[in-house]
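Sequence, please.
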């Protein structure tokens, strides 16, 4: 569950932000999220519990958005902050509180999407070593070191894990490839394999533990061996 907060004293702007956020999440087929609205910094600061992402209007009655952000940081809140304002010149002040984004009113659709793409990447990095996937109405965190290989069939990705279980969800292999780390190698147009589980390569097949195998493209066999050598050096083998 991704927890969003919108803090803006203009009801129409808060409504527009919520609508744009809903549209973006629908496009990304992410349903496990919540949105809370606050009309001022005090209301946000008084709220118990933390948010993953906070959209903060800068120009509000005291405490304004920048001061609210400073108070959040002072008490150890590590939420991703996205400032929303008509004042372009305040962008440099956002660095002081480690803001993740800066949106200028009136909101631009492309800028909002770029900011949200960056926000989601930042959330994923915070769970480095894990893969966050959307399954049905919920999300699931899968440790990368449990994944032996990933297979695409139709519109679904199948994650084959080291305990024999398989998780499936809707995604593209190209998008998954960008989200995993260097231990994963695309040995075939339909497969990503965790190099730590590769036992060898023979007759156009990547050999895996417990007698399993998956195909490797002929043109990628040499790259696979080079990737295995690099991975062994990384692990000190």
């Amino acid at each position: 569950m991704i927890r969003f907060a919108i803090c803006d004293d203009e009801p129409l702007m808060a409504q527009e932000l919520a609508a744009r956020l809903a549209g973006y999440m629908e496009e990304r087929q992410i349903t496990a999220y919540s949105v809370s609205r606050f009309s001022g910094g005090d209301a946000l600061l008084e709220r118990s519990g933390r948010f993953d992402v906070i959209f903060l209007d800068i120009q509000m009655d005291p405490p304004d958005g920048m001061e609210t952000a400073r108070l959040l940081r002072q008490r150890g809140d590590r939420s991703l902050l996205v400032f929303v304002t008509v004042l372009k010149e305040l962008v440099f002040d956002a660095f002081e509180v480690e803001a993740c984004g800066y949106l200028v009113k009136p909101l631009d659709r492309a800028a909002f999407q770029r900011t949200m793409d960056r926000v989601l990447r930042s959330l994923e990095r915070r769970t480095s070593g894990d893969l966050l996937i959307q399954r049905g109405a919920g999300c699931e965190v899968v440790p990368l070191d449990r994944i032996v290989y990933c297979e695409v069939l139709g519109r679904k990705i199948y994650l084959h894990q080291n305990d024999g279980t398989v998780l499936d969800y809707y995604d593209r292999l190209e998008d998954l490839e960008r989200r995993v780390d260097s231990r994963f190698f695309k040995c075939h147009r339909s497969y990503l394999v965790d190099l730590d589980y590769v036992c060898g390569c023979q007759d156009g097949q990547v050999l895996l533990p417990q007698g399993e195998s998956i195909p490797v493209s002929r043109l990628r066999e040499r790259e696979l061996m080079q990737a295995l050598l690099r991975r062994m050096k990384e692990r000190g083998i």
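DSSP finds six helices and 15 strands in the chain.
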